[in-house]
Fold:
Amino acid sequence: MHEPDWKGPLGEALDQALTYLAGLPDRPVPGRAGLAELRAALGGPLPGKPQDPRQVVAELATAAEPGLVASAGGRFFGFVVGGATPAALAADWLTSAWDQNAALHVLGPAASVVEEVAGGWLAELLGLPAGVSVGFVTGVQMANFTGLAIALREVLGRAGWDVDAAGLWGAPRVRVLAGQERHGTIDRALRFLGAGAAAVVPVDADHQGRMRPAALADALGRGDGPAIVCAQLGNVNTGAVDPVAEVCRIAHGHGAWVHVDGAFGLWAAASPALRHLVAGVEEADSWATDAHKMLNVPYDSGLVFCAHPGAHRAAMGTRAGYLVHATGAERDALDYHPEHSRRARGIAVYAALRALGRAGVAELVERCCGHARRFAERLAAADGAEVLNQVVLNQVLVRFLAADGDHDAHTRRVVERVQQDGTCWMSGTTWQGRAAMRISVSNWSTDEADVDRAVAAILRQARQ
Ligand SMILES: *Cc1c(COP(=O)(O)O)cnc(C)c1O
Structure:
């Protein structure tokens, strides 16, 4: 067999990527192409014969380009998405080139140790207890799934029920107490786990979306039996964080397990200036967070931590005769996540942490929150705009006032026009019955000029 040509396709990918990344600062944020155009450019019959790999990459890039959303750039403020820092992106490429299966130490000793080290650094950075176990998963959906799977198994075990053997049919009922303003991935994880959305006991939240501790104490006191409490750090609308120290104290007083969904809000712990918001978070039992949001690692990077490594391994681990399991101090990642084979996604996390350092992560989080405050200040100062939330982290909710009094319709129109304008992109939401524009700052490359350009575009559309 002749030498494979790596340079052709990989060189083409590098050129295409560099062109794309260089264009991000000036590119309109939404994709230009419509559905029919993309299907025409990318579709057609399945090729019958092999094609030149370099040409495949070039044609793919050309056909896809009009349908790309510049969410990796500095003027995308939709959802909570983050971007990718240069070190994380490059390490992600290397991860694919190395193509390690990170499930078992024997399949990738370097990958296994990289994740072990990154896991320790993350726990320290996020203020979690020394010795917590960590699982590298796809995102917080699966981190919540994993945390809740450990929790269910553990609280049922304490009640004398072996969920591994017997499943949930006939098991004592487990109450899952979660704030009214919890993220939908909690309910979805409970569905996947067979507990069902009916397991959730919603706990009253305040006007910022924070769980009310008194309501939690009340709800816990109204029943008994095994219980799990889900706290949230970072409401997707307001950015508000649950009073986690109090939540842990109350929950543990009732023998409940505390799982924290800290998808983006847990990163406040990495900043000396913001850490007070999540004080007491180390008291919880399990934590879910994303590296693909605040840390700006490419997608496919969620994290689950557990204060009870034995429970974590017992819930997730698997054994098979044909697998070569670690027998010594090595770490088999398979024991900490629901996947079997998987890419070594922790390598990009490791590179991100090394490139930023403790100071760089703190600065990244504080910068995003500072930009959110700048948005809020500029918009609040403008006629006809009203900021609806206390801007504690990186989220801003704003609505636009209409002369005819129909502020909801006007706000939705402004969101739509801003999306069409293309200078920036953010989505709309409904907050406590009112339509709002939802601004989320989570990209490392956003600067003040991006914020000012976005504010100008928003106000231009609001005044039309
Ligand atoms: C983003 C988010 C999730 C879901 O995380 P994914 O990484 O998209 O799976 C869950 N909870 C909160 C609070 C979030 O912000």
